[in-house]
Specification:
By secondary structure, the protein is of the alpha/beta class. It has helices at residues 23-30, 49-52, 66-79, 81-90, 95-111, 126-133, 184-187, 206-217, 229-236, 244-258, 280-290, 293-302, 308-320, 322-330, 341-359, 364-374, 386-398, 403-417, 424-427, 431-455; strands at residues 13-16, 35-38, 114-120, 156-159, 166-170, 195-200, 221-226, 267-269.
C-alpha cells in the first residue's frame, strides 16, 4: 500500500504476481478506487474448493466473481471446526473480524508495557525487592546494587530479563536530599508508572503517608509492603513461646495503626528472599484485580512463580490466548501459504512459546535459583522435555544469528516432534497446525514446570 500511495484514488489498475495477490489487498485497494489484475496460487484460501481440485491442465485461467470468494470464506468458517471455535472464542461473528481482534489482542499480549515504581527510605530493601521481581539474586550481574548505605540516589530503570516491555523502577526515597517531599512526584516523573509499591522494613513514615495521599489524589494505585519479614522471624524465633502467626498479626496491626489516616490500606508482609512465603502471592492477586486486562497480561508473564497457584494462573492465561496467537500468527492463511509467510508465522509461534518458557520459570537462571533454594541440584536436569529443549537449543541460540532462520528452524524441529504436520518452511503454517502446535507446546512446558515444582517439594504451596 505504501508503494501504491501516489497512484491511489485515481481509478487506476495495478498488475501483480501471486506473491502479492490476495483478497484482503483487493479489498483495501478497491476502497481507494483501485483495481488489481494478478495471478494467484490455487492453494490460497480465497480460491473456491472447486477450483483447487480440477482435471484441467496445470496452467489454466479461471474467473471468479468477487462475491463468490466471500461465499467460499463463509463456507470455510462454517465447516472448519477449529476456525469455528476460534471465532466463537473471539466473540466475533466472522473470520475477518475475529482475525482483526486476534491481532490486536496478541499484540497487546506481547508488547504492552508495564512500569512498576518501587520506593521507600534508605534500608527498606527496595533494591532487593526489585531484584526479586526480576528473578535475580542480589549478587548477580545486572542486579540492582544493595547495601546498608543509600544505594539509590537517582531513579533507575531495570528491564525484566524475560519480558523486555516490563520495567521496574528503583526510586530514591521521598525526603532524601536530592528528592524533597514537596517536589517528589514531579522529580521522579510520576506519570511514567502504572502503580507504586511503597516499602518499609520497620514503620512507615510521615513521608510515606504524604506520598500515598499524593498518589491517591492523582488517581493511581499504591501498595504498602512491609519488607524483610524473614529478618523479623529470625529475631523472634529466639524468644520463648514464639508463634509465627501471632508475630505476623502484630506486625500487620502496627503498620495499620501507623497508616490509619489513610483509612484501611492493605499491608503486604514480604520477604524478597522467600517469595513463596508470607504475602507475595496476595500482592500479585491485588495487582491483578486492579490492573486493566492488557496490563494484567504483562504482570502475569513477568511475575515470579511463587506457588503452585501462581504457576496455574500463568498456564491458564497462556491457554486462553492461544486462539488469538493462532489466528494472528497464521493470519489470513487458514490454508497454508508457502514462501515468506512461513518465516513471519514461525517467528510469532516461537515468540509465544519462548514467553511461556520464561513465565513458567524454565530458563537456566530461574532453575538455578530454585535448585539452590531447595538444595536439589538435579532440578535443572529435569527441564529436558521436547519443547524446552527446542526453545533452549534452537530458538535462543540461533536468534543471535538470524531471527527468521531461527524461527523457521525451531518450528520445523517442533513439527518433527509431532507426527503428521510436515515442513513449516515448505508449506507455511495454517491456523489448524499453529493452534495444535501451541496447545501441545503450552501443555509440554506446563507439565515440565509442574514436575519440577513437585520434585522441589513445592507442588502444594498456595
Amino acid at each position: 500500500m505504501r508503494l501504491m500511495e501516489p497512484f491511489l484514488d485515481k481509478g487506476r489498475n495495478v498488475t501483480m504476481d501471486n506473491f502479492f495477490t490476495s483478497l484482503s489487498l483487493a479489498h483495501k485497494l478497491l476502497s481507494r478506487k483501485t483495481t488489481i489484475l494478478g495471478t494467484v496460487n490455487k492453494i490460497r484460501r480465497e480460491i473456491p474448493q472447486s477450483a483447487r481440485h480440477t482435471d484441467r491442465n496445470e496452467f489454466t485461467t479461471q474467473v471468479f466473481h468477487y462475491s463468490s470468494w466471500n461465499q467460499e470464506i463463509q463456507n470455510m468458517e462454517n465447516q472448519d471446526p477449529a476456525v469455528v471455535d476460534a471465532i466463537k472464542g473471539s466473540g466475533e461473528s466472522t473470520l475477518e473480524k475475529a482475525t482483526a481482534k486476534a491481532k490486536i489482542k496478541f499484540d497487546q499480549f506481547l508488547n504492552v508495557s508495564l512500569n512498576i515504581a518501587v520506593t521507600g527510605k534508605t534500608g527498606s530493601g527496595k533494591s532487593s525487592f526489585v531484584n526479586a521481581l526480576r528473578g535475580l539474586k542480589d549478587e548477580e550481574d545486572g542486579a540492582a546494587p544493595t547495601g546498608v548505605k543509600e544505594t539509590t540516589t537517582v531513579l533507575t530503570m531495570y528491564k525484566h530479563p524475560g519480558m523486555p516491555n516490563v520495567n521496574i523502577w528503583d526510586l530514591p526515597g521521598i525526603g532524601t536530599p536530592s528528592f524533597k517531599a514537596k517536589k517528589y512526584l514531579k522529580d521522579v516523573k510520576f506519570n511514567t508508572y502504572d502503580f507504586f509499591i511503597i516499602l518499609a522494613s520497620e514503620r512507615f513514615t510521615e513521608n510515606d503517608i504524604m506520598l500515598a495521599k499524593a498518589i491517591r489524589k492523582q488517581k493511581k494505585s499504591f501498595y504498602f509492603v512491609r519488607s524483610k519479614i524473614d529478618n523479623d522471624m529470625t529475631s523472634e524465633k529466639k524468644k520463648k513461646g514464639f508463634d509465627e502467626q501471632k508475630v505476623l498479626s502484630l506486625i500487620r496491626e502496627d503498620c495499620q495503626k501507623n497508616l490509619k489516616e489513610l483509612g484501611d490500606p492493605k499491608i503486604f508482609l514480604i520477604s524478597s528472599h522467600y517469595l513463596e512465603e508470607y504475602d507475595f502471592e496476595l500482592l500479585q492477586n491485588s495487582l491483578e484485580d486492579d490492573l486493566p486486562e492488557h496490563k494484567k497480561y504483562a504482570l502475569l508473564q513477568a511475575w515470579p512463580v511463587c506457588s503452585a497457584a501462581s504457576l496455574e494462573k500463568k498456564i491458564k492465561m497462556f491457554k486462553r490466548i492461544i486462539w488469538a496467537a493462532s489466528l494472528a500468527s497464521a493470519g489470513v492463511a487458514v490454508i497454508p501459504v508457502p514462501g515468506l509467510s512461513a518465516a513471519c508465522d514461525a517467528g510469532m509461534v516461537v515468540l509465544f512459546l519462548t514467553r511461556c518458557y520464561y513465565a513458567f520459570g524454565l530458563d537456566d537462571r530461574s532453575l538455578t535459583r530454585l535448585s539452590e533454594k531447595v538444595n536439589k541440584p538435579h532440578l535443572k536436569d529435569m527441564a529436558k522435555s521436547k519443547f524446552v529443549t527446542a526453545i533452549r537449543e534452537k530458538a535462543l541460540t540461533r536468534l543471535q544469528v538470524s531471527a527468521a532462520l531461527a524461527a523457521i528452524s525451531t518450528v520445523e524441529y517442533l513439527f518433527s516432534l509431532l507426527p503428521g504436520l510436515g515442513s513449516a518452511a515448505a508449506a507455511g503454517i495454517s491456523f489448524a497446525t499453529t493452534q495444535y502446535l501451541l496447545r501441545e507446546g503450552v501443555n509440554d512446558l506446563a507439565n515440565t514446570a509442574r514436575d519440577i515444582r513437585k520434585e522441589a517439594g513445592l507442588a502444594s504451596v498456595h
